[in-house]
Design a protein that fits this description.
187 residues; 3 domains; 5-stranded antiparallel sheet; 0% helix; flat
């Protein structure tokens, strides 16, 4: 059993029959009354973000987790297949546990969060930024670059990303995997 003094970003705990991870927290000590901890946490099963205030000293059930670096191998009817980079064991993970599966390429290394109690995967975290090649996009029209206009483009995994008009087929771009958005042209 943990208390609110153990809360920090990334802390994983059980609450209302679900497993959550702390996204943001703030310890508040008002001038009058008892201290409390204001938290924002994300469900690892649904991805829903909730906010709640806990009184200082409130007991919470901590969930022990481990992070494993794993390499994405392939996808089939059973799900996404990954291999542990240390033990070479393979695991099949369902697509709903992966936040942005359209950005996964064979051979990519990701971080998988495992619940140590039952050795089940909780989430698959992609790197924050990845570089991909544009396989298809409409050509930009000369003179249309005065505004921040974006056009759709298909990357090598088949996912669609909105890019500026000056990006062409064959260009490599940097993509933010959290928002599935264009960041910059790759160098």
């Amino acid at each position: 059993m943990a208390t609110t003094s153990d809360i920090k970003n990334g802390f994983t705990f059980k609450h209302n029959q679900d497993i959550y991870t702390i996204v943001e927290f703030q310890h508040v000590k008002p001038g009058k009354g008892p201290a409390f901890v204001r938290t924002k946490f994300k469900s690892l099963s649904t991805g829903k973000v909730l906010t709640e205030t806990f009184p200082s000293g409130h007991k919470i059930t901590e969930v022990r987790v481990e992070r494993h670096k794993m390499q994405f191998l392939y996808k089939d009817d059973m799900g996404y297949h990954f291999m542990n980079n240390v033990t070479y064991e393979q695991a099949t993970i369902a697509d709903y546990l992966i936040e942005n599966p359209g950005m996964l390429r064979e051979g990519d290394t990701v971080e998988v969060l495992y619940n140590t109690e039952d050795d089940s995967p909780l989430t698959v975290d992609l790197p924050q930024y990845i570089e991909m090649e544009i396989t298809y996009t409409e050509p930009g029209v000369k003179g249309d670059t005065a505004t921040n206009t974006l056009k759709p483009a298909t990357v090598e995994t088949g996912a669609e990303v909105r890019v500026p008009l000056f990006i062409n087929i064959g260009d490599r771009i940097k993509i933010d995997t959290r928002t599935n958005s264009y960041v910059e042209r790759a160098k």
